[in-house]
Structure formats: structure tokens, C-alpha cells
Amino acid sequence: MLGLPAPPQLEVTRLAWDLCAVLEAWVELIAPLDWETLTAPTPSRDRSFRNLTVNTFHPIELLPGAFETGTFPWEPERDEEREAAIRDAAALVAYARERQLAWQGWLLEREADLVERDPAVESPRGPITYANLLASQRWHAAFHYRQLLAFLGGRGHDLTGALALSSLGELDLPAEVF
Fold first, then answer.
1. Integer CA distances (angstroms), 37 to 9, 22, 171, in order
2. To which H or E segment does residue 79 belong?
3. How far apart are CA 122 and CA 137, in angstroms?
4. Other C-beta atoms within 10 Å of 126: how many?
């Protein structure tokens, strides 16, 4: 499913923690930005940081439930509705941070369970193993994080201290950023 090889079970915790690292880096990247920057259209189909944040972080809040229930009810077509409720920079940072911390907390509690079992999950794109779902969400978050970096770098922002995606191991991101 999704063209991803099934990761060995011992690798699933690395995928989960890599995802946590990308989310944390994302929050740190957007935290100092003003609302104008967060809502400016980017070369990613004119999507703003606000939209990309919702598109990346909403599925993360669904991951614990997917592990428990075997269902991943992600509806990205509703992202605009979700983002409309976020009306300022502080609210966007809070939205992302809450989901990042919830994922981290769940992972701290359930990490051993990830190694013990790899449940089948029904997603909008068909059945997938939980490990492959984690791999796809890790890739998705890294792909959009790289877009944020490119956009900010192109506007002269100092990206010193930003997460180097190469530290995550094989991501196989396409050469095209946008």
C-alpha cells in the first residue's frame, strides 16, 4: 500500500520517534512567525503554513485511535474547515503543539505495544499496516516540513537549528520540493 515496503517491527519505534522529531521541529519553526507569514500562500499549491500545519498535524491526532480501532478516518478535504477555526499565530502554534505533545505522550505510554503488534488499519486509501501508516505519516510530515524550510529560506529567514531531515534516515523524498 502507498508503495512503501513493510518496515521491520523493531524499526517501528524509530519511525514513531522520527515523526515526533519532525512535529517538534515544525512547532519550533512556526512559533516565532507572524500571522502574515503563516497565512501567506506558498508554492505548495498556494497553501499557507496554516493549511499545511492542519494537513500535517490533524492525521497525527488520529494515529492513536488507528492503533486501537484499526480505522484511520483522515479526511483532508475538510482541512479548510479545520483551519478556519484558527485565527491567529498563537492559536496555530497551540494547535500544532497540542497534537505534537499528545503524540509524544501516547508514544511514551505505548511504545512497547508498537513493537509487539502491527495491527491492520483501514484508511481512506485502503488497508495498511500500522507500521506502514506511521511510515507514510513520517514521510508526509517531512515532505511538508521541507517545503516550510524552502519557503522561509527563500524569504531570508535564518534556519540555523532547523531539523536536518537527513538525520532521520531514508525518507526517499522527491527531488522537487513543491
1. 40, 20, 27
2. helix 79-84
3. 15
4. 9
Global pTM value: 0.91
- Look up residue 59 and give its amino acid: P
Helices (H), 117-165: 130-154
Q: What phi and psi, each to the nearest 5 degrees, are found at residue 123?
A: -120, 170
Q: Distance of CA 84 to CAs 6, 44, 51, 100, Å?
A: 36, 19, 9, 20
- Single-letter amino acid, residue 88: D
pLDDT at 11: 87
For 130, other C-beta atoms within 10 Å of its C-beta total: 22
pLDDT of 10 higher than 90: no
26 grid coordinates: 515544525
The β-bridge partners of 122 are: 71, 127
Side chain identity at residue 120, one-letter code:
A
Nearest residue to 31 via CA among 99, 101, 93, 97: 93
pLDDT tens per residue, range 73-115: 999 999 999 999 999 999 999 999 999 999 999 999 999 999 8
Whether the per-residue pLDDT at 2 is higher than 90: the answer is no
Residue among 172, 82, 173, 63 at smallest CA distance from 123:
63
Mean pLDDT of the chain: 92
pLDDT surpassing 50 at residue 13: yes
SS3 state of residue 129: strand
